[in-house]
Amino acid sequence: MSYKKFFFLLIFFPSCLFPQPEEVIKKDFYTFLSTGQQIAVSPLNLDESDIINIGSFAFLLSSGFLLDNEARTFALENRSEFNKNLFNIDRYYYIESSVALTAGTYLYGFLTEDEEIRQLGLDLGEAAFYSGTLNILIKYISGRYRPYETDDNTKFEPFERMPRYSAFGSAHTTLAFAISTVMADQMDNIFWKAGWYTAAGLVGAARIYHRMHWLSDVMLGASLGHFIGSFVLKKNTGTDITITPLGVGMRVQL
Question: How far apart are CA 61 and CA 214, in angstroms?
């Protein structure tokens, strides 16, 4: 069964069995849209420290570009049965599992009228959707060749829709870090947090191992996912916030 059919059944079948007040759905829908608006206008609220943080991230990303070929060579030289099994994580921690976790969490909170669980499901959905949308936009604009297509990490075909021109950045890594950032925040436990971020990091490493992405693609994907996930977690505080994933800083007026 495809993830789209699974998502359809997960959303609509239980909803028919357990009708709920439409005010809750309407409230969450407008919250979802409001989050998108806040993300869209966040670059308008930068100050001097934010500019410095963005410059720092640009420097780190440039370093990633310089190490792209070394990371690719390292992955190719360290093929093993253990690594093959370990890096299959990118087959499981992606769209299907993220949709199941997000929809299942939201529906459980919705049907049991548990507001905290429902909010967690909404946070997961916002983080995944908006980080994924930004990732797709950057992919399309940049049109970077994937490492299985070329040994040259500087080859780009902007505005091409072909999958082989969609390396920058890694969608798997973006989604993994978006989900992991939200989930890691749910418990004040070092092992819980380390587990979620380790899983997301392994997804990024897997994309390099499988020659689907360059190191810099993974760095951008991790930054996008973590930034949007952090934004979603902070958006209800009602105060100015500064989020600095991998050196990126943006002050957001909520």
Answer: 11
In terms of Cα–Cα distance, which of 146, 122, 121 is closest to 28? 122
Residue 34 lies in a domain: no
Each residue's pLDDT tens digit, 196-236: 999 999 999 999 999 999 999 999 999 999 999 999 998 85
Q: How far apart are CA 96 and CA 115, in angstroms?
A: 24
> Among residues 203, 192, 221, which one has the least CA distance to residue 89?
203
Question: Above pLDDT 70, what percent of the chain?
Answer: 84
Angle at 79 between CA 98 and CA 132, to 5 degrees: 25
What is the spatial distance between Cα 64 and Cα 166, in angstroms, rounded to a whole number?
17
Asked if residues 143 and 158 have their Cβ atoms less than 8 Å apart, the reply is yes
pLDDT in tens, 142-186: 999 999 999 999 999 999 888 888 899 899 999 999 999 999 999
Flag whether 188 is in a domain: yes
Residue 240 identity (one-letter amino acid): D
Domain limits at 115?
55-235
